[in-house]
Design a protein that fits this description.
The complex is a heterodimer of chains A (307) and B (350). Chain A is an all-alpha fold. Chain A has two domains: 43 residues; 227 residues, Orthogonal Bundle (MetI-like fold). The two termini of chain A are 46 Å apart. By secondary structure, chain B is α+β, with helices and mostly antiparallel strands. Chain B folds into two domains: 223 residues, 3-Layer(aba) Sandwich (Rossmann fold); 79 residues, Beta Barrel (OB fold (Dihydrolipoamide Acetyltransferase, E2P)). Chain B has a six-stranded mixed β-sheet with strand order 6-7-8-3-9-10, sandwiched between helices. In chain B, strands 13-17-14-15-16 form a five-stranded antiparallel β-sheet. Chain B has a four-stranded antiparallel β-sheet with strand order 2-1-4-5, covered by helices on one side. In chain B, strand 4 and strand 5 form a beta hairpin. The chains are: A mainly alpha (307), B alpha+beta (350). At the A-B interface, helix 10 and helix 11 of A face strand 6 and helix 2 of B.
Chain lengths: 307, 350
């Protein structure tokens, strides 16, 4: 120990006696990054949305105005917002319904080995490129694709054809329809729903479930009154992922969509092709407002009471 | 107290994988009785309780509640309630909602529910705390809420799984008395799991001592303490000296194993006369532990082995007792206090 350089030793002792300084030194770099780069750009985005585009010169007029938001709430743009929110909401609900049984099995019944395998199976898709997975779904969902073949073998092709005729969500084939988009969104975001629900369920002690049964509640009632309320923070956390990821995504609508735009595509189009940065900024504010509203509603519904 | 049988286990065996948690246990608990299941951890006492509650089901044998077989029934079909070791209070509900849970499930109308919850909270001395969250309560208060939540349903049998285990000594002793008082007030059969022999002796009408999945002895506290059926019971319920083999032969003339309680033995000067009907053993005091009201001596016997002896410090001071170390002594006790015991549990363990 006597060979230790006295300078490093002195620094160690100095920091040991000033834990606040040590903490500040550790936290400063990430906080500066978060504050300046992330929040800063978010703020500049917000500011941009209150500027406007001069339609004649194509220049951004740096003057405070609500005119961009007036543009945002035109019929066509409101359609985009509603379509995207509707998709995000349905994907979230479907993902939650699909994720819950898997998460419940992992948290309550799976042996450590099975649990590790399931974790791997859930995380494995995330290791490959998102783009590759979306394009492979394009092939799966195509008219000549495997899904169509399976459906035909099961003699359910009539049902599929009927579903594709539904206006708004249908299309010539699953690979060019909102229905197909819904399937792919549900697939790509499912892991983000399973993991938080699993974590929440794992924190529910077995004895609470036993206590509910002991007090006379049948399993369905125990689920409704004890298990689900305690897993709700996990469901909300997962739905924040699925909801906001769907709201902001432009690749899935681009690959599987038709002419009906989604928010992500609108942002891309306005800030790239059209050069209308203010309107693009206003579009990106929409998901943030929706998410804030959603979180507030979840809080009022008591989703975080058990935290 | 009526003479009906509240809980009956008939030749119950429970196997978890390769572990035999209960071996062929038969047990009758009477209505209105405070019955303790006593034993070290892993002895099968909690397993028995969980089988009665319905959280687990016996591998073989039957369980009856008030004469009706319940072996295959789920917990929500049984008229018993449980106080859990970790209390298992619902964290997302207030204290009042926790206590009202069973009533709500049974569709008791809200106004009646509120009245019964308030009544129960005052019985467990927590009036006015109904709006708190469990997280805002102390350990002792949570324990009371757990008790109220179970009792409010007026179960015919209340199961308690080491309910005082997490409390400090003072509070535990206070709660022991309160629990006993509440049990006498409500007249419900209590089945109480504990590893604390003092607790079991203090509170129970009768108790059953478990060891390694077997029920070793059932009886009143006095009977179990004074007439332990096996060497295990003798050692677990109170402190006891187990004397066997050569040492036993030297003292009683027979190599049969017996136990003798430390407080029954007198320490006298070496060479003190031995009267009829008394046992004697010569030895040397090896260790002295001064415990305030009494002192515990360990005496190394001349014929091999050692005996633990406790003596009230009626006249002796701590200085006197410390000075006794190393002194040659003669130990005397009434032969009638010797308890022959079966060494069944030892034989099965080896």
């Amino acid at each position: 120990m006597s060979h230790a350089a006295p300078v490093t030793r002195r620094i160690s002792t100095y920091l040991y006696r000033r834990p606040t300084l040590a903490l500040a030194l550790l936290l400063a770099p990430p906080l500066i990054w978060l504050g300046v780069v992330y929040l800063g750009s978010l703020f500049s985005l917000l500011v941009q949305s209150f500027f406007s585009l001069d339609g004649f010169t194509g220049q951004v007029v740096r003057q405070f105005t609500f005119s961009t938001y007036r543009d945002l709430f035109t019929r066509a743009n409101v359609d985009i917002i509603l379509r995207t929110s509707g998709m995000a909401a349905s994907v979230t609900i479907a993902a939650a319904i699909a994720a819950f049984p898997i998460a419940y099995y992992m948290a309550r019944y799976a042996s450590p080995r099975k649990k590790a395998l399931l974790y791997l199976a859930i995380l494995l898709p995330l290791w490959s490129s998102y783009l590759v997975r979306v394009y492979s779904w394009k092939l799966i969902l195509a008219k000549e694709g495997i899904l169509n073949w399976v459906v035909t073998q099961l003699r359910l092709d009539g049902v599929l054809q009927w579903a594709l005729t539904v206006p708004g969500i249908g299309g010539p084939s699953l690979s060019v329809s909102l229905l197909g988009m819904f399937i792919v969104f549900g697939y790509v975001w499912l892991p983000y729903m399973i993991l938080p629900i699993e974590a929440a369920l794992e924190r529910v002690p077995e004895s609470l479930i036993e206590a509910s049964g002991d007090l006379g509640a049948r399993p369905a009632e125990t689920f409704r009154r004890v298990i689900f309320p305690l897993a709700l923070p996990g469901v909300v956390a997962g739905s924040i992922f699925t909801f906001s990821l769907t709201l902001g995504d432009f690749i899935v609508p681009y690959v599987l969509g038709n002419s009906a735009l989604f928010i992500g595509q609108a942002v891309l189009a306005h800030q790239g092709t059209a050069g209308n940065i203010p309107l693009a900024a206003a579009f990106t504010v929409v998901p943030m407002v929706i998410m804030a509203g959603y979180l507030m509603a979840a809080r009022r519904a008591g989703a975080f009471d058990a935290l | 107290m009526s003479e009906g049988v509240a809980v009956e286990l008939r030749r119950v065996t429970k196997i978890f994988g390769e572990v035999i948690a209960l071996r062929d246990v038969s047990l009758e608990i009477k209505e209105g009785e405070f019955f303790s299941l006593l034993g070290p951890s892993g002895c099968g006492k909690t397993t028995s309780l969980r089988l009665i509650a319905g959280f687990d089901h016996p591998t073989s044998g039957r369980i009856e509640l008030h004469g009706v077989e319940v072996s295959g029934l789920p917990p929500y079909e049984r008229d018993v309630n449980t106080v859990f070791q970790d209390y298992a209070l619902f964290p997302h509900m207030s204290v009042a909602q926790n206590v009202a849970y069973g009533l709500m499930i049974k569709r008791v109308p809200p106004h009646e529910r509120a009245a019964r919850v308030a009544e129960m909270l005052s019985l467990v001395q927590l009036p006015g705390l109904g709006d708190r969250r469990p997280a805002q309560l102390s350990g002792g208060q949570r324990q009371r809420v757990a008790l109220a939540r179970a009792l409010v349903n007026h179960p015919r049998v209340l199961l308690l799984d080491e309910p005082l285990g997490a409390l400090d000594l003072k509070l535990r002793q206070q709660m022991q008395l309160e629990l006993k008082a509440i049990q006498q007030q409500v007249g419900i059969t209590f089945v109480y799991v504990t590893h604390d022999q003092e607790e079991a002796l203090t509170m129970s009408d009768r108790l059953g001592v478990f060891n390694a999945g077997r029920l070793e002895q059932v009886g009143t506290p006095a009977a179990v303490y004074e007439h332990p059926a096996t060497d295990f019971v003798a050692g677990f319920v109170g402190v006891s000296n187990l004397v066997s083999g050569v040492t036993a032969a030297a003292i009683t003339g027979s190599p049969e194993t017996f136990t003798i309680r430390p407080e029954k033995i007198l320490i006298r000067d070496a060479g003190t006369a031995v009267y009829d009907g008394m046992c004697a053993a010569d030895g040397r005091i090896r260790d002295v532990v001064y415990l305030g009201a009494h002192t515990r001596y360990r005496v190394e016997l001349a014929q091999g082995g050692e005996l633990t002896v406790t003596q009230q410090n009626v006249e002796a001071t701590s200085i006197d007792v410390q000075a006794a170390r190393g002194r040659p002594v003669r130990l005397l006790w009434q032969r009638a206090h010797n308890r022959p015991v079966a060494t069944r549990s030892r034989a099965t363990q080896s």
